[in-house]
Specification:
Blueprint: E1 4-7, E2 10-13, H1 25-45, H2 56-74, H3 80-103, H4 105-111, E3 116-120, E4 123-124, H5 126-132, H6 136-145, E5 154-159, E6 165-169
Length: 191
């Protein structure tokens, strides 16, 4: 006998159709893995950027992409069982990629963009700044976050693979470390 629940004058059968798959579990896993791989490639090609530094346009693009990809993953299946299979597959794939990235340098080389040197000995490297599409406001903020006022005080500045800017000051043996989530954007892939 099915469990019945009243909601808005309608009766739902919690033990019947919501659990019945419309697509084979193997197809759901394959679809999920394929879409996950496509999304990883798209993120990799989009450059050095993190969620914490997304502009409103970046956030809109990710939300729209997620919405567009959902039917590609589920196909005609709208079951709770299918949703559970998809969620488990995506989390397992993500964990597998994280472990492989940690253990194998070649996976890290594929997934991570290379750091970009932005400044050396008190001078910005304009071709690198242009390639990474960093503006003066981003650069000034990075200097201030490291306790510096001008580029003249910088020995080395590097845009890291995670989107953060590391700065080594010229003067003094102390290196000031910024301990915050601030990341700097890059609109294009690093070369």
């Amino acid at each position: 006998m099915a469990a019945l629940v009243w909601h808005d004058a309608a009766v739902f059968d919690l033990l019947g159709d919501p659990w019945r798959l419309a697509v084979s579990p193997v197809e759901l896993v394959a679809r999920s893995l394929l879409v996950y791989a496509v999304f990883l490639v798209a993120l990799r090609l989009s450059g050095k950027r993190e969620l914490g530094q997304f502009t409103i346009f970046d956030l809109a693009a990710v939300l729209l992409a997620a919405n567009a990809l959902q039917p590609a993953i589920t196909g005609p299946d709208a079951s709770l069982t299918g949703a559970a299979i998809i969620v488990a597959t995506l989390f397992l794939a993500n964990r597998t990629v994280a472990v492989a990235r940690h253990r194998y340098a070649w996976v890290r080389r594929i997934l991570d963009v290379q750091p970009t040197t932005l400044a050396v000995d008190g001078e910005w490297l304009r071709p690198a700044l242009d390639r990474e599409e960093l503006d003066d406001a981003d650069l000034s903020a990075a200097l201030r976050e490291h306790g510096l006022e001008t580029i003249d005080e910088v020995r080395l500045a590097v845009l890291e693979h995670d989107g953060s800017i590391s700065v080594i000051p010229r003067a003094g043996p102390n290196v000031r470390l910024h301990r915050g989530p601030r990341r700097y954007r890059s609109r294009g892939p690093s070369r």
